[in-house]
Design goal:
12 helices; five-stranded mixed β-sheet; 29% helix; Immunoglobulin-like; alpha+beta
């Protein structure tokens, strides 16, 4: 079974997961134990039922190509040997002793595979620095941010020492105990299906316990969350780190985000670093009610585009945050580690009750996490976040022209008396020709021109036919405003 598909399949598991997450946030030990047991049992039933629905030959097939085609993860030799040994020990008359004497341990590749699934299905975890480990962690962290080299002549001695400061972080690991109810029938399904089951349980234990700790953990036997103040001058009381003061944000426009980014690109000691791997964490309900309206634009084609921000920022929903609060920062500036305890062994636990046809085992996971500096993440108050505002500037249309004059008037080659000017409206001319072309050009292109000869309209730019004697030509110019008009008159005498 492909775990990616498994998480989306069961509504029951989704509901139990939400209850489990809430128990973690409320620090309710009774609710935690009960909801976790229900979740683990539901996962086991779901996987077992899925296997039972497969073809008999499929369940017992050693054809790796068939398994791979069905979405079953291919095991390494070390992983296969581990699951076979685990199943054998679990079926023994004295499973506690058999498991304690097991000469193989859970390979690190199993945890690595779980983390791969986590990164795929939990967007937050994919943006952090993640590592697998078997114990305490010591790592070196650059505290100075951006460093600049110096220029000089080719043969010069070094003119500037790169003074990038480094600090050593000693990150002890805190325990996450995961109870694993294994149905006896599950042990007979083979290593591939047992791997699916074990990884699914480890996934839930890590995902639900760790994400809450990473975001809001107070550091007391749990990770230090992004919303906590860290640093040498922070007062830690009873192992708990204080919560950051919230910054009120009412919009996500360029100026507002620019100010927020300017705060996280400066390290705690005042050095610069590049603005990259920026994340914006928000409660799922707040995303749809507040963030989505503030980051959604309508394209010219009528479609909508979500999470439109003026700078590359990944918006992530997380139930770890309460309504009205958000986290903004640089994801890669958070370090988290996960590993197996007791050399990767799964222990038998007599203190947990047996379920029907089940034995309950205990896997101890160890994890921790902390921000690498205090400026890497900001705690925001988004309760007053407003929808995106579209700024529309109305540009008034220019007033229609009132110019009703002609810039030129020609009757073939006839001479007008007096010579044409736009201000004079009365002219005379003589001709011996039967016709002449009348061309009247308005001073404003938007004006309309009407030409009449002897009271009959002719097309402007076409010839007019003359009668013997006097002929009256009228040119009426109506301005673009449709109201202003001016009439020019030419008396043409044909001899």
């Amino acid at each position: 079974m492909n775990l990616k598909d498994f998480w989306k399949k069961s509504q029951k598991i989704t509901s139990l997961r939400e209850t489990f997450q809430q128990a973690i946030k409320e620090n309710d030990s009774d609710k935690f134990a009960d909801s976790f047991e229900q979740l683990m049992t539901a996962i086991g039933e779901e996987i077992y039922n899925s296997v039972q629905s497969e073809n008999e030959d499929m369940r017992h097939s050693f054809d790796q190509s068939v398994l791979q085609a069905r979405g079953v993860r291919q095991l390494t030799t070390e992983e296969s040997n581990y699951y076979q040994a685990f199943a054998k020990a679990a079926r023994s008359a004295n499973p506690k002793q058999a498991l304690e004497n097991l000469d193989v341990v859970m390979p690190e590749t199993i945890i690595s595979s779980v983390l791969d699934d986590l990164r795929s299905e939990h967007p937050l975890l994919s943006h952090l620095q993640f590592t697998t480990t078997g114990g305490a962690i010591r790592m070196m962290v650059n505290t100075d941010g951006y460093q600049e080299a110096a220029w000089g002549d080719l043969c010069d001695s070094i003119v500037k020492e790169l003074t990038s400061g480094f600090k050593e972080i000693d990150a002890g690991l805190f325990k996450l105990s995961a109870f694993i109810p294994v149905c006896n029938a599950m042990l007979d399904l083979g290593p591939a299906w047992l791997d699916t089951y074990i990884r699914a349980l480890l996934y839930e234990a890590i995902a639900n316990g760790l994400e809450v700790g990473i975001v809001v953990g107070d550091g007391d036997k749990k990770p230090i969350g992004m919303v906590r103040d860290v640093g040498a001058n922070v007062a830690v009381v009873g192992g708990k780190y204080p919560e950051k003061a919230k910054i009120k944000v009412t919009d996500l426009e360029a100026a507002t985000l620019g100010n927020l980014i300017s705060l996280v690109v400066i390290t705690a000691n005042g050095k610069n670093r590049k603005a990259k791997d920026l994340i914006f964490l928000v409660n799922p309900q707040d995303y749809y009610q507040l963030v989505m309206p503030a980051t959604t634009v309508r394209a010219p084609d009528g479609t909508y585009r979500n999470d439109v921000l003026p700078y590359p920022i990944t918006v992530i929903e997380t139930a770890a945050l309460s309504r009205g609060e958000a986290v903004f920062g640089m994801g890669r500036q958070y370090f988290a580690a996960v590993g197996m305890g007791k050399d990767g062994r799964i222990e038998y636990d007599d203190s947990v009750r047996f379920l029907e046809d089940q034995r309950v085992y205990k896997a101890k996971l160890y994890a921790n996490g902390l921000p690498l500096d205090n400026n890497a993440f900001l705690h925001l108050d988004v309760s007053g976040l407003q929808p995106m505002t579209y700024r529309v500037t109305t540009v008034p249309a220019p007033a229609a022209s009132t110019d009703a004059t002609l810039s030129a008037l020609k009757l073939g080659s006839l001479n007008l008396t007096p010579a044409f000017t736009s201000s004079n409206v009365t002219y005379t001319a003589t001709t011996s020709a039967a016709s002449n072309t009348i061309t009247a050009t308005p001073a404003n292109a938007g004006a309309k021109v009407k030409v009449e000869v002897g009271g009959k309209e002719i097309e402007n730019g076409k010839p007019a036919t003359w009668s013997e004697g006097s002929n009256t030509v009228t040119i009426t110019v109506t301005a673009a405003d449709g109201e202003t008009a001016k009439t020019y008159t030419v008396t043409v005498t044909k001899s």
